[in-house]
C-alpha cells in the first residue's frame, strides 16, 4: 500500500533527473545535526571563525596558547559549524486547485512537485515537513529527514479533498508559530486569495528570518485562455456559472491575470521572496531542474 501511495506522487523518471540536485539554503541555517550547510552558531568544528575571551567553564582544550603568550590573556578559538536545514512545504488544497485533469490538475501537479522536492531534501539528510491548507490548516507532518517521511508525506497528500476556499493569510500565520527561525518555506498554490491580506503573513515569515519561495501553479488554460466559441464556466469555490462568448472576454481576462501575477510579483520583490511561475503543461522535472539550477547560480553569486 505504501508503495502504491508513493507511486502516485513520485515518478522514477523525474526522480532520476532531479534527486541528485541539492536544495541549498540561501543564507546561514539553524539546525541540530552535523550536515552540509554553514550555521550562524559558533562551535568547535570545521572552519575557524575567530576568537572570544575565555570565561570559567570553557573547555581549556580550545584555548589559543599562542595568543596567550602574546597578549597574556586567555582566548578561545571559535569555528563555524556545518549543520542541517529544515524545509517546510506548504500546499494549497482548496477547491480552485481542482482545475485540470489527471497529472495536469493543479493540485496533483503541485503535490508531485512537493513530493519530489521532499525526497531530494530528505535524501541529502536535511529535514522536510508538509502542511496542507485551504481556509484552515488541514494536515501537518512534522520535520524529519528519514526516508519513512516520504510515506507520511504521501499519505497526507492522498488525504487532500479540495472543497473549500482559501484563507492563506490565516493559515500561514498559524504555521509560522510552529516554525523556528532561519528555515525555508516553500508554498505551492495558485494564490487565488486576498493578496492585501497575504502580504503581512509573508512579512511575518521574513521577519522570522525564513527564506520564502512561492510556486504559483496555474493550469495552461488559466495562463493562455485558449478557448473558442461559447463556453460555460463553473465556479470551483462558489456555485456561480457563466455562459460566455470567449472572444468577448479573452483580452479582459488575460489583462486581469497579468495584473494579478504582477501584483503578487511586486509583493515578492518588496519582501525579498522568490516567485516561481509554474505552468502545468510543462514537465515537472524540467520545472524543478530550471529552478534548482537558477537557485544554484544565485547561491554562487552570494
What's the arrangement of secondary structure elements?
Elements (H helix, E strand, L loop, with lengths): L1 H8 L2 H7 L15 E10 L3 E7 L11 H7 L3 E9 L2 E7 L13 H18 L3 E7 L3 E8 L4 H10 L9 H9 L7 E6 L5 H13 L3 E8 L1 H5 L5 E5 L6 E5 H25 L3 E6 L4 H17 L2
Parallel strand pairs: 4-5, 4-7, 7-8, 8-11
Antiparallel strand pairs: 1-3, 2-3, 5-6, 9-10
CATH architecture of the largest domain: 3-Layer(aba) Sandwich
What is the CATH domain class of the largest domain?
Alpha Beta
The structural class is alpha/beta
Q: How much of the polypeptide forms β-strand, as a percent range?
A: 25-35%
General shape: elongated
Q: What is the H level of CATH, i.e. the homologous superfamily of the largest domain? A: von Willebrand factor, type A domain
pLDDT averaged over residues? 85
Helix and strand sequence: HHEEHEEHEEHHEHEHEEHEH
CATH fold label of the largest domain: Rossmann fold
Indicate the radius of gyration in whole angstroms.
23 Å
Count of helical regions:
10
- The level of helicity is 25-40%
Strand order of the largest sheet: 6-5-4-7-8-11
Alpha carbon gap, first and last residue = 44 Å
How many separate domains make up the residues?
A: 2
| Low-confidence spans | 28-46
Largest sheet: 6 strands, mixed
Number of distinct beta strands: 11
